[in-house]
Amino acid sequence: MQTLLRRLQKSMSTLYETLRTKALSALKDHELIHHRVKVKARALTTEEAIGNPEGDDFPLQKGKERLMQAEINGSVGQAFTDRYGDFEGRMDEILSMPLENNYRRAVFVAALNAALRAVGVSDRTIHCRDSEPGLCARELVDFLARRYGGLKIGQVGYQPKIVESVATSFPLRVLDLDPDNIGTEKRGVTIEGGESRDDVIGWADLLLVTGTVLVNGTIEDFIGKKPVLFYGTTIAGAASLMGWDRFCGQGK
């Protein structure tokens, strides 16, 4: 364990290495890292993941993303990803493996969420279902109004219910990576692509960012430029370790 920590601490140039070191330290303190833990990560079907939400344009429903799910001693963690499949291994192996693509990062993030939930460091690691995304979006608008007031919001990641609700109360611009969304009007807002990233960041007072950026490797594009509020379950464990603000009104 100490050898692994020393090796990781030599490479602290990226956010992921910082997160990895913090995770190892947190789990070491709770001794979970010392146990041989089998982690099963699998891609959930749409029905398993979110049930039957209102609307038909969630990324999961369109087949562009799946939820990877890891389970450790009865605690469940999830992560959105566009590259998915099964994996099984010890927690220390997962925390030390190269995070070279979206699949590996999804395994890492889902397992981290499950482990940190198991030791009580994080919560709301399971995605909400059925009508709950709409309820969460309405709660988010109330939260934003109380905490931030009338700010201009740059949303990263198209989540239909959040776009629909936030756009009714705040000036809103939305960035997304899905080419089928870019340039189209969704829930009253024109979706913009990566070429607009710097313009949207410069315009916004607050960035409302999907936790999926932790899996797709774009998170460092948004941190440190404007105040950031992450949303969703994917970034649950990382937000707890890194002290990032997160909203997840209906996560389980």
Please tally the β strands and state the result: 10
Class based on secondary structure composition and strand pairing: alpha/beta
Helix-residue proportion = 25-40%
Total of domains: 2
Outline type: globular
The end-to-end distance, rounded to whole angstroms, is 32 Å
Account of the 3D structure:
Helix 7 crosses helix 8 (160-167). The strands form 2 sheets. The chain has a 7-stranded mixed β-sheet with strand order 6-7-5-4-8-9-10, with helices on both faces. The longest helix is centred in the middle third of the chain and has 17 residues, at 102-118. With 252 residues, the chain is α/β, with parallel strands linked by helices. Strand 9 (228-231), helix 11 and strand 10 (246-247) form a beta-alpha-beta unit. Mean pLDDT is 85; it is low at 1-13 and 57-63. The protein has helices at residues 2-9, 15-29, 46-50, 59-62, 91-96, 102-118, 132-148, 160-167, 197-203, 213-216, 236-242; strands spanning 42-43, 66-72, 75-81, 153-156, 172-175, 185-186, 189-192, 206-210, 228-231, 246-247. The chain folds into 2 domains: 2-118, no CATH class; 132-247, Rossmann fold (3-Layer(aba) Sandwich).
